[in-house]
């Protein structure tokens, strides 16, 4: 069992290296390279440019660049933003909390809605409500998330004014995570909590629609497959009520594949974060990424991609390991 | 007892109602009945049939629509009158800030969106199938290495890397930098290079699918039989394994087109997808954003609605295909 | 004496896309306490469906049971009792074991839990008492180191062991009737024998009535008091086991017996299979359902009238219009007979 985990971890390492290589390649392929960032700045002489390029090691041959870059990334030195001259790592870490708040809330809510929904529709299969559910889920995962975001902002934010149209705090409220922000919490926690909830409502709603649609269908099919198994027939033959059969015999086997799925929905949420953060002006990593793309700010872009890829690799690892832990057939 | 020398009954050729186990593996029975059977199963899916009609309508609209409804061009005389008109009889989907008919934009943009998604799907499926076949068939070290490569692609945050790649390889470079290496014309780049890039980033899903099918087919007897009569690896892969792989790939490909449409429209929405003067549904949404805030919702709403309907139709069809091609899969 | 189980006019049909499948057509039989009944038939003969009907385990929406059918168990018509009542009977008074022990046991729950579940449910035992009883049961069915194995999962047992666990689970609440649906089909021949021995032992020690369902005439040979043969949803022959093998009267049974190889044959003779294919359960003929495959058939008579079970000797009933025995010579083949062919005469039955 531990061998399995160790092996799995070891496999992840070449994957991470591969990702870093891929990212590096794209960086190299980009027309103009870092030069492009300076192309707009007429005040730089070619001497100054050359010096900066040298300090970044950009004048050395590619393989050497790669190694230097990789080692410094691993050591925690992620360089400095082209645009703002601040350390990349700090820039990114600044934005992480906002994205985290959004994603964790969305993640949690998504599972809480999708799983019971999927189970319920599996047990009520082929009934009218199930058919309605099916159509709704199809619409759900066929929907372009950003369009939904726009519609929600327009309807509930601008028109009905039930929710704010963006940001994590209003203009009048303290900026997120600055010292004043915590003081605000200290005064009366209910106010900032309320504000947070209001601000989270629309982005989270946008984010989770697709996820709920997908996950609930997955749960439904897993449950349906489980209910048809022979051992459910045995459980019924023992005289258990249908409720007992579902709770004690069907739920656990049906949830097994979902555990893996749960870990794997993270990449989807990450992508979705870009969408929502753009539309809702959320001060998170996604927005930072978009901004840095705009400004050709390589170090920031690379840093973000790096972090997210590592997260995805980590979660894939967790998915595999947790499945092995939960399914007794693999464990023993 | 019974005279064993005399045949009991004169054997008469009857078509077996159940295909005998001798029709090993691939579908070798007469192709006419197979296609017909597939159609029957597909037809039983109400949703798939609806999807088919819907998609057919959309394709029709994309192909011949532009003949009837020309690409809207700015008309300086009528521009101000027509500016931001809500939906009416003349303009069922309203007009945009430049006085252009939204419906016209939708009809004309359809082609681009559909073309791009299909192209990227073909790239992904082509490459993915090849990859999966080779990996699954040869197994062992080849398989391990190839699958690690696939894992790398699967572990990247797709949207991010896509934006990265698109920004620097597709969209016009910032002033002063060098032009794209491959194709000069930026709109052509977005039309051809972008889907290729999308395909090259989305192939691993297909590859995994193909690999697992290959792995299971590889062990079946008719493959061993083919080897026994001296068939070469390539021939086995093409003639025996590929036909079985096609079905799940078709399903996956169909669903991929839907996903690609959303992907492309988001890219265009951010400005890193289809480049002007080409127009897709995504670009319409990008332009319409600010107007949305002003209360002129139709410009942004309808293109998005059409994206939704197209993807919905594709998903319906994909689901129907899945059940029709593999009757063993339970609903 | 009042029979333990009295099945009257059981008719079960299923709604399918292809039409109404008449799985069980007017089946009636009785089972006394402590008796062992063997039900033999090929796939599709309706034997499993009958037993599932007794347990009321058939899927609710698509199943149609004729209102005139009755399944009387200890004086109660099981088809008419409420669900709650039925649940008290299932697992406690009537227990069932199934064909494939690997898929019939829940893979993610320890076998200890699966056994104690019934005990806690029906016998209201607490944890400790239930565990102790579970260990006793495992010992009874011959599982070594029973106390250690309670915490094990089904996949940690071999096929034969798993079936024993199933049996332990089934007899845990001392049922009056044990239905065994193809209990040995998924097992090796040597294990088969062991399981059958176990069932015999349990029958002696506990006095449970057993309904043993199988397609294999060899399995029921040493085990059953009575055997009934089913075909196309009806009982076509029923008698005590000795007479069935000595003097089969239904051409189907004769055909079955002819297709079994015997170790004690003097001269090597060819096995004679039953020609043709199983009947289409959606459109059953008006007359005898076996007629197309029967070597003795007389189309004019056999196709027109549905044979009822009639008594040919004491306690021996047969659903055939004629008096056929093993010695009856086969009538001459006419070309009109060759309406049903065999695609390959080497196809055997089971």
Can you describe what's shown?
The complex is a heterotrimer of chains A (332), B (331) and C (350). Chain A has 14 helices and no strands. Chain A has 332 residues and is mostly helical. In chain A, helix 5 crosses helix 9, helix 9 (190-227) packs across helix 11 and helix 12 (285-294) runs antiparallel to helix 13. The longest helix of chain A has 38 residues, at 190-227. The radius of gyration of chain A is 24 Å and the shape is globular. The termini of chain A are close together. The model of chain A has no long low-confidence stretch (mean pLDDT 80). Chain B has helices at residues 31-43, 46-68, 79-82, 102-138, 140-155, 158-169, 186-218, 221-228, 233-270, 281-294, 298-325. In chain B, helix 5 packs across helix 7 and helix 7 runs antiparallel to helix 9. With 350 residues, chain C is an alpha/beta fold. Chain C contains twelve helices and 13 strands. In chain C, the strands form two sheets. Chain C has an eight-stranded mixed beta sheet, sandwiched between helices. In chain C, strands 1, 2, 4, 5 and 6 form a five-stranded antiparallel beta sheet that branches. The two termini of chain C are 36 Å apart. Chains A and B meet through helix 1, helix 2, helix 6, helix 7 and helix 11 of A and helix 5, helix 6, helix 9, helix 10 and helix 11 of B.
How helical, in percent, are the residues of chain A?
over 70%
Strand order of the largest sheet of chain C: 7-8-9-3-10-11-13-12
Distance between the termini of chain A: 8 Å
Q: Given the structure, what is the number of helices of chain C?
A: 12
Which structural class should the secondary elements of chain C be placed in?
alpha/beta
Structural class of chain A: mainly alpha
User: How many beta-strand runs of chain A?
Assistant: 0
Strand count, sense and barrel status of the largest sheet of chain A are:
none
Residues in β-strands, percent of chain C: 15-25%
**Global mean pLDDT of chain C:** 85
The stretches of 5 or more residues of chain A where confidence is low (pLDDT under 50) are none
Oligomeric organization of the protein chains? heterotrimer
Q: List the helices and strands of chain C in order.
A: EEEHEEEHEHHHHHEHEHEEHHHEE
Instruction: Tell me about the largest β-sheet of chain C.
Output: 8 strands, mixed
